[in-house]
## 1
Amino acid sequence: MAQLSDLIIGHPEVTTFSELELLVQHAGESGQMFLEFDVKPDFRDTPRNWQWVLEAAFTRGTSYG
């Protein structure tokens, strides 16, 4: 299980929500099965529907092969 806080803390180079979205997509691609939203991203460009956006990015990254 991937926790959002671990992704954010583990990648200090990520400074925008767009970059976080790509990181979350990569977590889905790398075989993580679940994503836990344990914190709210504190980026200036974080949208109101950030949970939906990150869930979609995680799912897009998941391979169903």
## 2
Amino acid sequence: MADSESYDKHPRSTVNRYGKPRGRYDYQTIHSVVNTVPVLHVSFPTPDEDDPFPAMIPMLGFMGDFSAPGSDDLARPLDLYLHGYISSRLMKLGGTGDGVHEGLPLTIAATHLDGLVLALTPNHHSYNYRSAILHGFATAVTDADEKMWALEKITNAVVTDRWQNTRLPPTKAEMVSTQIIKVSVVSASAKIRAGMPGDDRNDMKNDELRAKTWIGVVPTWTQYGQPIASPENRVKEVPAHVRDFVKAVNEREEGTAKDAALQ
């Protein structure tokens, strides 16, 4: 990583189409996208020489720094931690890196959809979105303390404070069957689109077209619903940490989507 506030630009990570208004390379933007998306999509090479396609799987993960475990600062170099089962294909694969970095090369994608952008013509329809692509080299986390720290962070990324509101500590069997991999990120970029439609000047002068075609943005966000208790549940009320999480995320994502439409 660069010793600045941004990732160095690389041909693989440079945003080309609408790169100037939409491309972002700063740590804060990229890490924020990753740490607020429910699912990451991870692509990696396979050893099957007869199959030219890379594999891709959805995973849980977060950006963090084990050397500063109490810090929430996203505007600095961080590693990406991914959660998986020891028997999965990704966890079984090895990697020698590129001669400089150790590990298996991965590409990770994260995307938020913030709105449907409806224009006068099909060509100018779009989405408001926040997306990030990261490239890095993955190695298994073998340090017991780092692995436990990462498991707690990933659990709390699902629902805030969930770790301490469950049975702890994990059993030996659970720790053995679960693997954490750490990705040393070497390049990354974000691409963000916000605002109203951008129609052609001639279309905007067409009164007949504008009189019959609605244009604007339909804000879009992830909405968590009312928690539904398991038939085996014995707790009478939904705990505060779950209620508060649902309320906070719903308000945050709704606000972000509506703000994006008005930019």
## 3
Amino acid sequence: MRICTSIMLAGSLAISACQSGTTSQAVADKNSEFGCIAGTVGGAIVGGLIGSTIGAGTGQVLAVGGGIAGGGFVGNRLACR
């Protein structure tokens, strides 16, 4: 049992040594992409909430749709510079 555990541990360490490290540029790109997505989704949510306060019936549905589209666009523009 101890030999099997030792072999598995040694194999895991050997495999992890082959992994390449991430560069700071790759991390920055990933953070930038997350911020862009978060800005777009956040803007769409806020726009939809604002649109839901306008009108009633079919007009409200159109206002919510327009708020989602407009909020997503504005959020994308602000976050994805």
